[in-house]
Amino acid sequence: MSAAEGPLVVGVDTSTQSTKALVVDVATGRVVASGQAPHTVSSGAGRESDPRQWWDALCEALRQCGDAAHEAAAVSIGGQQHGLVTLDAQGEPVRPALLWNDVRSAPQARRLTEDLGGAKFWAERTGSVPAASFTVTKWAWLAENEPEAVRATRAVRLPHDYLTERLTGEGTTDRGDASGTGWWASSTEAYDPEILAHVGLDQALLPRVVRPGEVAGTVHRHDLPFSKGTLVAPGTGDNAAAALGLGLRPGTPVLSLGTSGTVYAVSRHRPADPTGTVAGFADAHGDWLPLACTLNCTLAVDRLAALLGLDREAVEPAGGVTLLPYLDGERTPNLPHAAGLLHGLRHDTTAGQILQAAYDGAVHALLAALDLVLDADADRSAPLLLIGGGARGTAWQQTVRRLSGRPVQVPEARELVALGAAAQAAGLLTGEDPAAVARRWDTARGPVLEPVERDGATMDRISGVLSDAAALLERGTD
């Protein structure tokens, strides 16, 4: 390892599929060491993971970082949002965590919305209308289906909270991740006693919400490659961490292409969308992060490519083919029981056209929500920041350009969640706003792809098929 110019920090991204750790030089933003280890996720009706896998993966990722991790002065955890982690009196998982993309709690989401004043109540109180991904719906599902697990639970955590607590020995979270639970009120920036009472959750089981810039604790374990007294930042959810990692200013739109797809922007105004399209999340440093999310993005398109026996880049102009790639149900639009739908096949339709239609269908919902995410005074001609695993794929880039009609900027930095966590850790040492740290590191630097004429006809065709097939999609395949 070459000599660093400033102190070192560790930023962690514990995602659905793996945990990554970066050791970053605070002075320059240079990544001096990195490590990564995988997780497993259950298949079938639910999507679950044993939280102990995340800890083992973190330990392995840090081991791969070598001596650099031992030199770090601070660490922060960015993690997948919404997951329900239930712990017993010894701090061990009661059962596997229910992950964000587990849609079994869709009936509970509907009932919670109806029981407590409807969508307008939830949007005004919490900033979001409950969807199956939200933690409050998962707790309601657990209480209904596994009451013995609820009775055994002595602490309720989110994925990033679980790892932070294992580092510090203290139960903490942050406003960004707490805002995705459904029981944290964005209107008061506190846990909501009415919602907690309705779902039978004692606030004493929840972590303390640490303020932006506050130290969550220090590393108290001796089995990790950290020095005694290493500071631990609050951490945050993955989207809020990526926003920090980009150094986002208000109004700059981001489209993230990962296992899920998201579109978001930082705003000075607290969001409250009663349609449920936009989740009114908090960000990690005092502003807001209105966000729309789709469950089906790169994973769904890759699955279609595999079914067709094609490389993921082997697309052809789709012509009149429409494919709604709702392989795991969907969140935007809110169709948790939906399955994929293909319309417009002809004798001369090619596999490459079907694959392009899958890309179009995945991007359509995100772009349709973009105007709802942005403030009214946002510059609609500003480049769209394209991030996530799909951002470097030519087919993804060209689809986003064609359907949006906007310039597209692809940051060169790859691990933006981990970089955002590192920037948050660096802020503890320097006193800077973490987003300002990331701007100093120039993390958003990357080529800008010029705009092309917007393909409004394809956007309209997909919207039409979606509207016409609404009853079929609501019914699913049951």
Automatic annotation (TrEMBL):
Record-linked CDD domains: ASKHA_NBD_FGGY_BaXK-like
Domain Carbohydrate kinase FGGY N-terminal intervals: 9-245
Site annotation Important for activity: residues: 13
Protein family (similarity comment): Belongs to the FGGY kinase family.
Enzyme kind, highest EC tier: transferase
GO biological process: D-xylose metabolic process; xylulose catabolic process
InterPro entries: ATPase_NBD, Carb_kinase_FGGY, Carb_kinase_FGGY_CS, FGGY_C, FGGY_Carb_Kinase, FGGY_N, Xylulokinase
A GO term for molecular function: D-xylulokinase activity
EC number(s) from the headed UniProt entry: 2.7.1.17
Keyword annotations from UniProtKB, A to Z: ATP-binding, Carbohydrate metabolism, Kinase, Nucleotide-binding, Transferase, Xylose metabolism
Start and end residues of each Carbohydrate kinase FGGY C-terminal domain: 310-426
Function: Catalyzes the phosphorylation of D-xylulose to D-xylulose 5-phosphate.
Keyword Kinase: yes
Classification via PANTHER family: SUGAR KINASE, XYLULOSE KINASE
Residues the record marks as active site: 238
Organism encoding this protein: Streptomyces lasalocidi
Keyword ATP-binding: yes
Pfam family for this entry, one: FGGY_C
Reactions catalysed, as given in the entry: D-xylulose + ATP = D-xylulose 5-phosphate + ADP + H(+)
Designated name of the protein: Xylulose kinase
Binding site for substrate: 81-82
